[in-house]
Amino acid sequence: MTIDRWAVLIVGLLAVAFIVWFFWLKRTKGVRAGETSGGYQEAMILVKGGYTPDTIIVSRGKPVRLNFRREETASCSERVIFEAFGKSAHLPTGEQVAVELMPRQAGEFGFACPMGMFRGRLIVE
Ligand SMILES: [Cu+2]
Predict the structure, then answer these.
(1) 75 is in which domain, residue-wise?
(2) I need a labelling partner for 69 at 20 to 30 A (CA). Which of 42, 75, 100, 104 fits?
């Protein structure tokens, strides 16, 4: 192979590696949900090209309220699904939508858009 073919191959492999890392391997440290006077553990999540923050840390046994605010029109992120909790929510653009959950077990529980491109985690301690 000539040098420019090698270059194309290497750039291609780097692009694939980046995509794998970005969609499946990238992990953030997480944000602890704040406690409200109503006894809820509450956090805001911005939906725009992903979930920000994408990792929420809560304590077991106290109700959780996640306030999603979607600031994009891509139809894929219109719905967020919490599979382990059997919950999903419709997220109209520009509106805040609360999802309430009761974390009874410790562990990591994912949430995602219907196609699984946007992913987040709820860590229950
Ligand atoms: Cu999606």
Answers:
(1) 29-124
(2) 104
SS3 74: coil
Ligand 1 centroid vs 79 CA: distance in angstroms?
Answer: 9
- How confident is the model over 55-83, as pLDDT tens digits? 999 999 999 999 999 999 998 899 999 99
Q: Does 17 map to a domain?
A: no
* Ligand 1 center from residue 2 Cα (angstroms): 39
Distances (CA, A) of 20 to 6, 49, 80: 21, 16, 22
Query: 120: closest CA among 52, 20, 59?
Result: 52
Cα(73) to ligand 1 centroid in Å equals 12
Q: Does residue 52 fall inside a structural domain?
A: yes
Amino acid at 116: G
